[in-house]
Specification:
- Keywords: Nucleotidyltransferase, RNA-directed DNA polymerase, Transferase.
- InterPro entries: Endo/exonu/phosph_ase_sf (IPR036691), Endo/exonuclease/phosphatase (IPR005135).
- It holds the Pfam family Exo_endo_phos_2.
- This protein is of the alpha+beta class.
- The protein is about 35% helix and about 15% strand.
- It has three domains: about 150 residues, Deoxyribonuclease I, Chain A; about 60 residues, no CATH class; about 60 residues.
- The C terminus is likely disordered.
């Protein structure tokens, strides 16, 4: 694309051998008005929208995500819109390519002080992508723009086997302790193993201690592998993903399908969606707060290693680059980055 208001980016998901498996095209459009002095489409002299300059038959192919500020109002994506404004090209594009509208009809993307809800920043997906599993407005990170920050995710590739990418990193000990029968069997198995290994004496050497430590580790691992459910972590694992979110996601997916078939109203669909997003935000916040505070059993007796926890968290919060665009018409403007320095 050679256009100041249109940009396309192909994102490839790779396989184990770094081969290209699936492509998702992300198209960003700022649908501004163009006049006769901006002729990116041949010699078109008429006043038109930027969305009309694109050959969408060549751009929208397969998996495609169309985003942008479209500066248009329509009941198609905003039931509260009082009138249709600059909506013709966008409505034709949605209908022609059967695009999904992922915006929440109750969530404004450009806040305003006047009555009504302004939804002009749209997130559209082709049928190959389908409805996005996650879409929400992030109000916790101000950017200086008069538009909201929109967060989206699409489903990753479902791999046939994950044995090579997942490995056991622990065990679900709480579930084992709650199962009395399994706990008794695990305790008996450990006693049988310990009975066959004589304990150390005061005359043991350093090699004997190392051998005993290795035996304890191997024996405990064998017992837990038999009676406790392993915890497997992969690159897609999320610490905040809990059973509550799974239930909310399942309820929202069911409500989404019912809403698309017309058997569920808009209000019930929005309630299920908002419940899902609130559960995600609450789980992320609680996980982050737990990381900063530390384990429950050690909060009353903090040690020197806990004092460095804030600097570990700083790696995830310090911006690597400025997201502020400097104004080109202000040569005297000076901008100084805010540096967080550790006090001695």
């Amino acid at each position: 694309l050679d256009h100041p208001y249109l940009m396309a980016l192909d994102i490839w998901e790779l396989g184990r051998a770094r081969e290209r498996i699936r492509r998702t095209r992300v198209v960003n459009c700022y649908d501004n008005w163009l006049g006769a002095e901006h002729c990116w489409q041949g010699e078109n002299p008429r006043r038109r929208r930027a969305i009309e300059d694109a050959n969408w038959d060549q751009i929208i192919e397969g998996r495609c995500l169309l985003l942008g500020d479209f500066n248009a109002h329509s009941p198609v994506w905003n039931p509260r819109a009082r009138a249709r404004t600059n909506a013709g090209p966008m409505e034709a594009l949605i209908e022609g390519f059967n695009l999904y509208i992922n915006n929440d009809p109750d969530t404004p993307t450009r806040p305003k002080s006047t009555p009504g809800v302004s939804i002009i920043d749209l997130s559209l997906t082709t049928p190959e992508v389908g409805p996005l599993p996650i879409w929400f407005v992030d109000c916790d990170h101000p950017t200086g723009s008069d538009h909201e920050v929109i967060v989206m995710e699409w489903e990753p590739i479902k791999k046939a086997s994950t044995k090579t990418v997942k490995e056991a990193t622990g065990w679900q000990l709480q579930a084992l302790q709650a199962d009395r029968e399994a706990l008794e069997k695990a305790t008996q198995a450990w006693k049988e193993l310990a009975a066959s290994n004589p304990p150390l004496t005061d005359a043991c050497s350093e090699e004997d201690i190392e051998r005993e430590a290795s035996w304890i580790q191997e024996s405990m691992t064998a017992v837990l592998n038999r009676f406790a459910k392993p915890i497997r972590v992969c690159p897609y694992s999320k610490r905040w993903w809990q059973a509550e979110i799974k239930l909310a996601r399942g309820a929202y997916a069911q409500a989404r399908r019912a809403w698309q078939t017309g058997t569920l109203g808009d209000r019930e669909h929005r309630e299920a969606r908002n419940t899902y997003y609130r559960a995600i935000r609450r789980a992320k916040r609680e996980c982050w707060e737990a990381f900063l505070v530390g384990p429950l059993e050690s909060r009353d007796r903090l040690g020197p290693e806990d004092a460095t926890r804030c600097w570990k968290a700083l790696r995830y919060t310090t911006p690597k680059a400025s997201s502020t665009t400097l104004p080109s018409g202000a040569p005297r403007a000076r901008w100084r980055p805010l540096l967080l320095r550790r006090r001695p």
